[in-house]
UniProtKB/TrEMBL annotation, chain A:
It is found in: Nucleus. InterPro entries: AAA+_ATPase (IPR003593), MCM (IPR031327), MCM_4 (IPR008047), MCM_CS (IPR018525), MCM_dom (IPR001208), MCM_lid (IPR041562), MCM_N (IPR027925), MCM_OB (IPR033762). Keywords: ATP-binding, Cell cycle, DNA replication, DNA-binding, Helicase, Hydrolase, Nucleotide-binding, Nucleus. This is DNA replication licensing factor MCM4. GO terms for cellular component: MCM complex; nucleus. The keyword Glycoprotein does not apply. Belongs to the MCM family. CDD domains: MCM4. It comes from Scleropages formosus (Asian bonytongue). Coiled coil: none annotated. The gene is MCM4. Its EC number is 3.6.4.12. It comes from the Eukaryota.
Length: 850, 643
């Protein structure tokens, strides 16, 4: 049986000659019959068959409200809200499945068909395919012929193949088989009666059908539903699903920024992106009212039409007037939810506030999205006039607009699949790609880009190059199958140096450049602010996880200023993030591991306010070496203090103050270009190591090890090799090359060496000593400490058998004996070393031998 | 042919006429705009238009042409309205096409037919505008006096009264001229900045509450950026090119005033009929904000608007026009101003010099994240617990068109909302103190600081101030994300010791040679110690002639707008100089110092009306900087504990 709700209502308001028919069988009404029902009515519409015109004669129009339908937009196709019986019902051959109304398509469609051939010449683009002899029935007000439309859509479902699909919705499907047939099978198995259709596919398959879908969604989508259900039950006649399949188109290419919505889009299918800012409580919306006569208990159902219920004035059974009473709990309601969508921050022009749009979600789309979600919404754009006061004829001349949502797609859902989301989000025009490719082909692209980076900051070329490579990042490798987990692809950089050397400015620049940048200051952030915290949501009283800067900058760059001022507990959080790229949280009953694939760009000031060139990096910034070794590159930003540099610097600064904007434009690539370049490279280029490159890397690593081994120290660890690989990959990305070649390795080596030279040079010997960074102390310093301890021991032994000595005396003796200056610290260290050997103890001012 | 009064009193009639004549051809819209533009071209004619700033709404004729000098506080969503609709006269059945543009309500009295093919839906944008925040009393007064278009009612209506701000009340004693007739108003004695409590203001507001425009009696929050502001807020409906306007722009809008009481009816009606599912699109709060009663927040349908470069009534709108004439005596005015400020700063000429430079500074360009031309000044050495800073602020307020004094007391820091925040329930941007128009002076009074603890709001507020000082930007809080709004606010910090602000900003300068984040720190060295500060300052002010005061005002606003360049030759010289200085002692000057030196040189040249840098000016700038740093060093020697 077809649903009881559908049958009586369809015939509710019949017009003229149209007899109340059980319409549920009508989907396959022979054309002749359909024509008969329409002939009488269409004749009076002949002058303007495609527009719903001022149908003043139609009583149906008069009895609905003054403003029953939204006004016409300038160009949009005419609207069709006039109450007519419709051939479009959900009745299908298999009517044991519940038909579910689709409030998302507006109130139940009652479209009327018009025979296009009964008018003479001015029909619009007629449907392409012939339906039957000389007849084209179209839905009134559109150029949609139900039969043709259905046929076309079925053909689309049966034949569409997209071998090059990268769509994550199609994960696990065979790309060489008709895509949507596989999806139907899936529905049969899973039992979720929703078919999502990518409009892009439809467009490439049948542009005309696509156009109709966009222009007349409320007519075409029910037709699609019909087509799908026929097809489905033909193939799976025994399938049991909750209700009939509903088609949900998404990704309408008319994807728009909220700002571009204009009156022309009213009643069309649109896709807009934005962020959910508020969701309302569930609103029960009456779909069908149940009335019972209080005299004779005769009951009747009235379908809601555009938010109104036509209360029957007379009981049809006993002819009593005004005896029908509404019975609430027998009426049918559907779920509805109001969602406020705000423009995403990227879409907003500078200096303006974001726009918001109201979206209504119906039935199972209710509660699909939460505030804070980034979504793409496909739906029908509606405008409803605001009535001031039913008693007044004046009307506020403003429409309320909203979108009836048909499909939600969370934009960050993909992150769960581990795909690089920028690939999909950032679409590049072909022209843009060409310019980018052209730029990439230039031999000096690396230099160009690095000089375009923060042009207001002078020199520091290598630092800029390092940051550039950081922006691109290495290639993400996944060894989780072999149990090693993912390899870090992100490059971490630490800048240290004198205050006022524009470190903060560089950080600010990077933060502004990358789409997912976060900027925090070590002083102002706690461990919690960086990672995540659990808080009670004031509204729902549930515990929710609020993510901090590191998680928010997943796939981006987290800029941390004043790294040295961070508390130890905060810093310890970074250990996990900077190597494993994850964040583990165990608090308030929530235990989880979040992805934090973020690059860290940190800036640290020396402890003594001025960089002390006589000390090592570790001593200067006093950061734990465990953390330092996780940075791929550590740069010093120091005042070079030489004349040529000063002159160039002065020139640079002065020109900053008088050059006009245009001059600057010529000189540097603009920020937008750089942004696009980075985004493109990050999403499309995945360089792999070539054979020669691997050899070069191996050689580089062996060389690095060799340097140290000559002096009895380790000068490179596997971590350094990994850094080299990442840097080389990033450099290949800069060139838009899919292969890492020797030149990339060369540059990686050079940069790595430069950074090391700056940060890991032992001030005492002048050698580069990686152990400064890995163990916090240079090998020579360690050696010297040992030597001193031995010297002290010898001194004590030479004194013969005295059980105790004066502390000061011993110190003086040692100083007198030594040819290098010995500080008190050094002396104490030596004593400590001997104490550890259980050779002596120090109590107060006396040293006692054991 | 419409007469003068027609286009002011009945602009809608003219719109209708043009619409009717055009026979639905779409160019009628441009014709309307051209018509009004033509009319307003004449300065004289523009001044006949009554101003919403001066005249209370209820004295203005509904649907007449008015102007409004305002500040865009928020932008609402665009709305679709009936651009063209058709009415049917039920008796004669004749159909008439009408235009819905520049109207809130489609008044017709007949049936409206929306289904006609001729109907056109159009889009318009709504801006929420408030009077320019922190506008000095003298500006308001001067504008209203220059505007002869007083709608003179028979009631006892004093034209200047309603828009007088609270500060003005305070100011009266220090304002020698024009105050006689105003003295009737009550004199505020307390410091409004200390409280920011609108309730108290309400009770103390001038008794002349006859004007509805001030709206104080209503609980409706008009969302002014600064506490204690008054004046009408307005919903400006923009029909053309709204993309060109930005939040925080200051505009002069000419438009049709719409105060149809019908607009207010809806909001009351809503409560009773919540049955319509369409109604739940807007919460009650949202209703209140987006459709406030028209008597409190009139609607203004924009016909013509221009962005104001400045809000100085003494200058023509395009400041450059005036420059040629005035530049001749720029030097003498500067001399006078220097003398005046020296007196005000208790005889400290160096501080006065820097104050001038600060007052004419403006962010003229941005290089990626770096704002160029900002010149934040920190005047330290202001006596604690005295009214000196307040006096100083009054002097400054008298000189520049818009300013605000923020007492950095612990209470203020912990309680004030400095950064604008989006309120999603009401769907509006809740304003904050830092939402200010370009070139507004923010006077931070650090002498009010006392010991105590900053809570999280306080820390956020201080960070916001730090960001403002270092980057000239304010990160508006949109709850789920922050949005950066560049700004151009001159920050002057008066403190006892060196300002604490830069120390809380992300970049921490702690070496003696790295400059503080406020671009310049001058230690005040009073040469005089007048026994009664208040009296002393007011004597100086009284002795200043109004014409000279006006010259100062023109001077300060005008010099801001001048262009500036450095010649090739001087560039070379500057470079050489820098290299030379570094050679002697690399510690003596850093890149940051050069930055500052270049700004000082630029402002110094501009302050005497020169648009290029000369060698002399460069030397002078260097000299000034040396004097200043020496003084700071000295101070450090005197009391070693200063940071």
């Amino acid at each position: 049986m077809s649903s009881p709700s559908a049958t009586p209502t369809k015939g509710k308001r019949t017009r003229g000659s149209n007899p109340p028919t059980p319409w549920s069988e009508d989907a396959l009404t022979p054309p002749s019959r359909r024509r008969r029902t329409d002939d009488a009515s269409t004749s009076d519409l002949q002058p303007m068959p495609t527009s719903p015109v001022t149908d003043m004669r139609s009583p149906a129009v008069q009895d609905t409200s003054l403003f029953s339908s939204p006004a016409q937009s300038r160009h949009s196709a005419p609207l069709n809200e006039i109450d007519m019986s419709s051939p479009l019902t959900y009745g299908t051959p298999s009517s044991r499945v519940e038909v579910r109304q689709r409030p998302d398509l507006g109130s139940v469609r009652k479209a009327r068909q018009v025979d296009l051939h009964s008018d003479h010449a001015n029909g619009p683009e007629a449907p392409a395919s012939e339906h039957s002899v000389g007849q084209k029935l179209v839905i009134w007000g559109t150029d949609v012929n139900v039969g043709t439309c259905k046929e076309k859509f079925q053909r689309f479902l049966q034949r569409f193949i997209d071998p090059s699909s990268t769509d994550d919705e199609n994960a696990g499907l065979d790309l060489n088989e008709p895509l949507y047939m596989q999806k139907l099978e899936e529905i049969n198995v899973v039992g979720d009666p929703v078919l999502n259709v990518n409009c892009e596919h439809l467009q490439s398959f049948d542009a005309d059908l696509y156009r109709q879908l966009i222009a007349y969604p409320q007519e075409v989508i029910p037709t699609f539903d019909m087509a799908v259900n026929e097809l489905f039950f033909e193939r799976f006649p025994d399938s049991v699903i909750e209700h009939q399949i509903q088609v949900r188109p998404y990704n309408a290419l008319k994807t728009r920024n909220m700002r571009n919505l204009n009156p022309e889009d009213i009643d069309q299918l649109i896709t807009i992106s934005g962020m959910v800012i508020r969701t309302s409580q569930l609103i029960p919306e009456m779909q069908e009212a149940f009335f019972r006569c209080q005299v004779c208990a005769f009951s009747t159902r009235v379908e809601v039409d555009r938010g109104r219920i036509a209360e029957p004035a007379v009981c049809r059974n006993c002819n009593t007037t005004h005896s029908m009473a509404l019975i609430h709990n027998r009426s049918i309601f559907s779920d509805k939810q109001m969602i406020k969508l705000q423009e995403s921050p990227e879409d907003m022009p500078a200096g303006q506030t974001p726009h918001t749009t109201v979206v209504y979600a119906h039935n199972d789309l209710v509660d699909k999205v939460q505030p804070g979600d980034r979504v793409n919404i496909t739906g029908i754009y509606r405008a409803v006039p605001i009535r001031l006061n039913p008693r007044q004829s004046n009307v506020k001349s403003v429409y309320k607009t909203h979108i009836d949502a048909i499909h939600f797609r969370k934009t960050h859902e993909k992150r769960l699949h581990g795909l690089d989301e920028e690939a999909e989000e950032k679409l590049f025009t072909e022209e843009r790609v060409r310019t980018l490719r052209e730029l990439a082909a230039k031999p000096d692209v690396y230099e160009r880009l690095s000089s375009a980076l923060a042009p207001s900051i002078y020199e520091h070329e290598d630092i800029k190059k390092g940051i550039l490579l950081q922006l691109f990042g290495g290639t993400r490798k996944d060894f989780s199958q072999t149990g090693r987990g993912g390899f870090r692809a992100e490059i971490n950089i630490l800048l240290c140096g004198d205050p006022g050397t524009s470190k903060s400015q560089l950080l600010q620049y990077v933060y502004n450049l990358v789409p997912r940048g976060q900027y925090t200051s070590g002083k102002g952030s706690s461990a919690v602010g960086l990672t995540a915290y659990v808080m009670k949501d004031p509204e729902t009283r549930q515990l929710v996880l609020q993510t901090g800067a590191l998680v928010l900058s997943d796939n981006g760059i987290c800029c941390i200023d004043e790294f040295d001022k961070m508390s130890d507990s905060t810093r310890s959080v970074l250990h996990e993030v900077m190597e494993q790229q994850t964040l583990s949280i165990a608090k308030a009953g929530i235990i989880c591991q979040l992805n934090a694939r973020t690059s860290v760009l940190a800036a640290a000031n020396p402890v003594e306010s001025q960089w002390n060139p006589k000390k090592t990096t570790i001593e200067n910034i006093q950061l734990p070496h465990t953390l330092l070794s996780r940075f791929d590159l550590i740069f010093l930003m120091l005042d070079p203090q030489d004349e040529a540099y000063d002159r160039r610097l002065a020139h640079h600064l002065v020109s900053l103050y008088y050059q006009s904007e245009e001059q600057l434009e010529e000189e540097f690539l603009d920020m937008a270009m750089l942004k696009d370049y980075v985004a493109y490279a990050r999403s499309y280029i995945e360089p792999r190591l070539s054979e020669e490159a691997s050899q070069a890397l191996i050689k580089a690593y062996v060389d690095m090890r060799k340097i140290g081994s000559g002096r009895g120290m380790v000068s490179a660890y596997p971590r350094q090799l990994e850094s080299l690989i990442r840097l080389a990959e990033a450099h290949a990305k800069v060139r838009f090359s899919d292969k890492v070649e020797t030149i990339d390795v060369e540059e990686a080596k050079r940069l790595h060496r430069e950074a090391l030279k700056q940060s890991a040079t032992d001030p005492r010997t002048g050698f580069v000593d990686i152990s400064i960074l890995t163990t916090g102390m240079s090998a020579t310093a360690r050696k010297r400490k040992e030597e001193l301890a031995q010297a002290l021991k010898r001194l004590i032994q030479s004194k013969g058998k005295v059980p105790t000595m004066k502390y000061q005396q011993l110190f003086d003796d040692l100083r007198a004996q030594s040819d290098v200056a010995i500080t008190k610290d050094m002396f104490e260290e030596a004593l400590q070393a001997l104490t550890d050997e259980d050779y002596l103890t120090v109590t107060g001012k006396t040293v006692r031998l054991l | 042919m419409p007469t003068v009064h027609d286009w002011i009193n009945n602009p809608l009639g003219i719109v209708e006429d043009i619409f009717a004549q055009s026979n639905c051809s779409p160019d009628w819209e441009t014709k309307v705009l051209e018509y009004f533009k033509e009319k307003l071209k004449d300065n004289e004619a523009a001044s006949w238009v009554p101003s919403l700033n001066d005249v209370p709404v209820h004295y203005l004729k509904a649907n007449s042409l008015v102007k409004f000098r305002c500040f865009i506080q928020d932008m609402f969503d665009p709305e679709f309205y009936m651009g063209v609709y058709e009415t049917v006269d039920p008796s004669s059945k004749s159909k008439v096409l009408r235009s819905g543009k520049y109207k809130d309500v489609a008044e017709c009295g007949h049936q409206v037919d929306l289904n006609t093919k001729n109907a056109v839906t159009l889009e318009r944008q709504t801006f929420y505008c408030v009077p320019i925040p922190g506008e000095s009393p003298w500006v308001k007064e001067s504008y209203s006096c220059s505007n002869p278009a007083r709608v003179v009612p028979s009631t006892s209506y004093a034209p200047c009264r309603h828009k007088r701000s609270y500060e003005e009340d305070e100011d009266m004693e220090t304002q020698p001229h024009k105050q006689k007739e105003q003295l009737a108003g009550p004199q505020g004695t307390t410091d409004i900045h200390g409280s920011g409590d609108p309730k108290r203001l309400e009770t103390e507001a001038p008794s002349s509450l006859s004007n509805a425009a001030s709206g104080c009696s209503s609980p409706l929050d008009l969302n002014f950026p600064l506490p204690g502001e008054k004046g009408p807020a307005c919903l400006v409906k923009v029909y053309e090119e709204w993309e060109l306007f930005k939040v925080n722009d200051i505009l002069e809008v000419y438009g049709i005033l719409s105060v149809d009481p019908v607009l207010s009816v809806i909001s009351e009606d809503k409560d009773s009929s919540l049955v319509d599912p369409m109604d739940c699109t807007e919460s009650v709060e949202e209703q209140r904000v987006h459709c406030p009663p028209a008597s409190l927040v009139p609607r203004l349908h924009m016909l013509y608007a221009h962005r104001l470069q400045h809000n100085n009534p003494l200058l023509p709108p395009a400041a450059s026009e005036a420059s040629s004439g005035f530049l001749n005596d720029v030097v003498s005015v500067r001399g006078e101003l220097l003398g005046y400020l020296t007196h005000v700063l208790l005889g400290d000429a160096l501080a006065a010099e820097y104050l001038i430079l600060h007052l004419i500074s403006t962010v003229y360009a941005r290089r990626d994240v770096l704002p160029l031309g900002k010149f934040t000044l920190n005047l330290s050495g202001c006596p604690h617990n005295s009214t000196y800073t307040e006096q100083l602020y009054r002097v400054i307020q008298q000189l520049i068109p818009s300013s605000f004094r923020l007492g950095m007391s612990l209470h203020n820091m912990n309680n004030l909302r400095l950064v604008p925040r989006k309120d999603y329930t009401a769907n509006r941007l809740l304003s904050g103190v830092l939402q200010l128009a370009p070139n507004t002076s923010l006077f931070l009074d650090e002498t009010q600081l006392e010991q105590g603890q900053l809570d999280s709001t306080g820390v956020r507020n201080i960070t916001a101030l730090g960001n403002l000082i270092s980057w000239q930007k304010v990160d508006y809080d949109f709850n789920y994300h922050q949005m950066e709004f560049p700004c151009n606010i001159n920050v002057l910090i008066a403190s006892e010791g060196k300002s604490l602000l830069p120390f809380l900003t992300p970049c921490l300068p702690c070496t003696p040679h790295s400059p503080p984040q406020c671009d310049c720190h001058v230690r005040l060295q009073p040469q005089l110690a007048p026994p009664n500060l208040e009296q002393y300052i007011s004597t100086i002010q009284v002795s200043l002639s109004p014409s000279l005061l006006n010259k100062f005002r023109i001077y300060l606003s005008l010099l801001r707008t001048l262009d500036y360049s450095i010649s090739e030759e001087v560039t070379k010289a500057v470079e050489d100089d820098f290299v030379e200085m570094r050679k002697d002692d690399p510690q003596s000057i850093s890149a940051e110092d050069l930055h500052r030196l270049l700004v000082v040189a630029r402002l110094l040249s501009l302050s005497v009306g020169h648009t290029t840098l000369s060698r002399d000016r460069w030397m002078r700038a260097k000299h000034l900087e040396t004097l200043r740093t020496n003084r700071t060093e000295q101070q450090k020697c005197v009391n070693g504990n200063e940071p």
